[in-house]
Amino acid sequence: MTRRRFLFDNPDLFLAGTVGEPGSRTFFLQASEGTRIVSVALEKVQVIAVCQRLTELLDELEQRGLEGTADLDEMPAPRALDEPINEAFRVGTLSLGWDTGEKLVLIEARELLEDEEDEGEAFEDDDDDDGPDLLRVRLTAPVAREFVARALRVIAAGRPPCPLCGQALDPQGHLCPRRNGHRLN
User: Fold this and answer.
1) What is the pLDDT of residue 52?
2) How much is the pLDDT for 1?
3) Beta-strand (E) ranges in 73-155?
4) What local confidence, expressed as pLDDT, does residue 161 receive?
5) pLDDT recorded at residue 41
6) What does the pLDDT read at residue 184?
7) Best CA proximity match to 23, nearest among 167, 176, 170, 162
8) Which of 31, 42, 115, 181 has its CA 20 to 30 A from that of 96?
9) How far apart are CA 165 and CA 183, in angstroms?
10) Is 54 within 8 Å of 96 (Cβ atoms)?
11) Is residue 32 within a helix (H) or strand (E), and if so which, with residue range?
């Protein structure tokens, strides 16, 4: 199948969001530019990882004196995903980078490959028509900070952690390993 490339240079919107109730949520990255909207599904831990790495990258750039990379003065307004959500692909690999010439953050999400032989294979030639589908977004540093702030808010809206073991609490409670398997409500 021919590889699809979804490329966004300074999109109108780039955000992480969810569909479903806490405990059964599906996470998405969504980029939009004009009437074009692309949504890709991923795991919560991938959203957490991209937020951590993006924060580290932006903090490093701020330490090096690059303007516009500092923390936000105010929290950006919450924003829901645009609907209908049509999943383009499920993310397997996320990559971050910094374009020094354009002074833009680069975020790439590549499709999860189901064929075990392709796992770990490097796809360096983006012009090749074979390979995983790709979402590439280029953002200014302030927009990247906004992305992180909104994504962290989405992550925090999930189930609260157990005060003893840190695992997510279900509405009915959970069997806590710190309480020798007894239910914590």
Assistant:
1) 97
2) 64
3) 87-99, 104-111, 134-139
4) 77
5) 97
6) 62
7) 170
8) 115
9) 12
10) yes
11) strand 26-33
Identify the residue whose tokens are 């590889």: 3
Please state, as a whole number, how many other Cβ atoms lie within 10 Å of the Cβ of residue 35: 5
Long-range contacts of 44-53 (CB under 8 A, 24+ apart): 44/155, 44/158, 46/91, 46/94, 47/16, 47/151, 47/154, 47/155, 48/155, 49/94, 50/94, 50/96, 50/107, 50/151, 51/148, 51/151, 51/152, 51/155, 53/96
Give me the DSSP letters along 155-179.
HHTSPPBPTTT-PBPPTT-EE-GGG
The closest of 66, 69, 73, 41 to 55, measured between CA atoms, is 69
Token readout for 97 is 């980078």
4 contact partners, CB below 8 Å, separation of at least 6: 88, 89, 133, 134
Output the pLDDT for position 112: 93
Q: What is the pLDDT of residue 125?
A: 53
Instruction: State both tokens at 61.
Output: 């750039």
The reported pLDDT for the residue numbered 18 is 94
Within 10 Å of residue 131's Cβ, how many Cβ atoms? 20
CB-CB contact of 137 with 31 (8 Å): yes
Please report the pLDDT score of residue 154 as a whole number: 93
Q: Would you tell me the crossing angle of helices 44-63 and 141-156 to the nearest 10 degrees?
A: 140
